[in-house]
Every structure is written in structure tokens, then in C-alpha cells.
Design brief:
The radius of gyration is 18 Å and the shape is globular. Helix 5 packs parallel to helix 6. 36% of the residues lie in helices and 18% in strands. It is built from nine helices and nine strands. The strands form two sheets. The chain has a seven-stranded mixed sheet, with helices on both faces. The protein has one domain: Type I PLP-dependent aspartate aminotransferase-like (Major domain) (Aspartate Aminotransferase, domain 2), CATH 3.40.640. By secondary structure, it is an alpha/beta fold. This is Aminotransferase class I/classII large domain-containing protein. It holds the Pfam family Aminotran_1_2. GO terms for molecular function: 2-aminoadipate transaminase activity; pyridoxal phosphate binding.
Length: 256
């Protein structure tokens, strides 16, 4: 598949040579369009091209979020059991305080988390701006959690979105495992981003879905994406230094 895609793409270069140039800051338009169609079919829920920002994988996406839209002295909330590589990446942001929140057999304990978040928010003076609108971020794996395997139930998903809106923190969902579902269900569980977009009308803007092809294709395919709400898209687009790093592979996987 890679051999065929490479040969096809290099022939296109003879007609329109732009493969090795800087691309659109959000990522190649045509690829995001095809990615939106692919995800819409797999999720069973509409994904819009304009909500997608391409990355070099989920770790890059996480670093980009923390660097771009979260206060540099902010708080990072994590579940008491979480993905070790993500935790290592989060520790690199030494100016941010990392705080754990409890989980049980159904995932994060929302009531306990709200108390912890509220207490942490009361301790600081948060100079949030339009460019950096969040004082804190909650890193979570709501679907097929690693390492516990838990999927957050509907009621807790709704409660988490309400808590994020009420206390104004960002939820970053590591959604790399969503498309690995199996069983009788046609589609995987509804991602948290979709709850934020639809719960009690659209007041979305507190959830980002961070994804990658690494888990569903191969780790060496350094192609990922953020599905982000409209209120944050322009801020990400302005981060040219990050987005110009998006790999060339994105232009290989396009229809003939």
C-alpha cells in the first residue's frame, strides 16, 4: 500500500510540484477532507474538515495543545492510572503542576474530580487570555482506557463536559484506541468531543479529541490529528512553527 501510494504521489509531482514545500498550516486540505469522510463513516457521527488540525502523532498533538492554548503556569489533571508515555511527555512541562484524580470501575470519579479542580483553581491567580484561554487541562482516555480498559459511561461523559464548562478547564481526550473496537456494535462508543458539541445545545469548546494512526496502522506512520472546537481552531492555525512540521505522508493517502 505504501509503495503504491508513493509511486502515485511522485507521478503527481510531475504535474504539480508542491509535495516538499511548506503546506497549509492546518494540514493539506484534500487530506483533511478525506480524513473527515473516513472518520464520519467509522464513528457513525459527522466529523467536519474544518475541525481537523493535522499533527505528527498524538504526542505531538498533546505538546501542541499545552504549548499553544494552556497557561504556562497552569495545572495538568491526570487519572491516577494513565498511559505512561503521555505522563512522561506531560512531565516535560515543568512550569505546570500535575495533579492526580481518582478513578473507579467506571472511570474517572467526576464528583471527586470537581472538588479537586475547584480547590486547585482557588489557589491560583489565572491570567487567561484569548490566545491561552485555559488555566488547566485534564488529560484522559475516556474510550478503551489504557491501562484499565474502561470506557466512560454516557452519564459520566455528560457530567465531565458540564464540569469542564462550569470550571472552565480543557479536556484532552487521548482517542487513539477508539477505532480498535470490536464486537456486535457497528460503531465505537461516542467520543467525548461529540458530547461537548451537542450536550444542551452547542456551547462547545472545552474538549479536544487527540488521535493518531500509530495504533491502528503502524507506529512509524507519524500522522495524527486534533479534532478541535471552532473557538480554538484559529489559535492553532496561527501556530505555524508547529503545524509546518506535519509529515509528507499526508499527501500520499489521497484518492487516485
Amino acid at each position: 500500500m505504501f509503495k503504491h501510494a508513493t509511486e502515485h504521489r511522485m507521478k503527481k509531482e510531475e504535474e504539480h510540484a508542491y509535495l516538499f514545500q511548506y503546506g497549509i498550516t492546518s494540514g493539506l486540505w484534500e487530506f483533511r477532507e478525506e480524513l473527515a469522510k473516513f472518520l464520519s463513516a467509522k464513528y457513525g457521527d459527522k466529523v467536519h474538515r474544518q475541525n481537523l488540525i493535522l499533527t505528527c502523532g498524538a504526542t505531538h498533538g498533546l505538546q501542541m495543545i499545552l504549548t499553544t492554548i494552556v497557561q504556562p503556569n497552569g495545572v495538568i489533571f491526570v487519572e491516577e492510572a494513565s498511559y505512561m508515555i503521555a505522563l512522561d511527555a506531560l512531565k516535560q512541562f515543568s512550569g505546570m503542576k500535575m495533579v492526580t484524580v481518582p478513578i473507579d470501575s467506571e472511570g474517572v470519579d467526576i464528583a471527586a474530580m470537581e472538588n479537586i479542580v475547584r480547590e486547585e483553581k482557588s489557589k491560583g491567580s489565572w491570567n487567561v487570555t484569548e490566545e491561552k484561554p485555559f488555566w488547566a487541562v485534564f488529560y484522559t482516555i475516556p474510550i478503551f482506557h489504557n491501562p484499565t480498559g474502561i470506557t466512560l459511561p454516557k452519564k459520566r461523559c455528560e457530567a465531565l463536559v458540564r464540569a469542564a464548562r462550569s470550571l472552565d478547564f480543557l479536556v484532552v481526550c487521548d482517542d487513539v484506541y477508539v477505532l480498535l473496537h470490536y464486537g456486535n456494535a457497528v460503531h465505537p462508543p461516542k467520543r467525548l468531543f461529540a458530547y461537548d458539541a451537542t450536550l444542551e445545545g452547542y456551547a462547545g469548546g472545552h474538549v479536544i479529541s487527540n488521535c493518531s494512526f500509530s495504533k491502528i496502522m503502524a507506529p512509524g506512520v507519524r500522522v495524527g490529528w486534533l479534532e478541535a472546537p471552532a473557538r480554538l481552531i484559529n489559535t492553532f492555525r496561527a501556530s505555524n512553527g508547529w503545524l509546518h512540521c506535519v509529515p509528507l505522508w499526508t499527501s500520499f493517502f489521497l484518492p487516485a
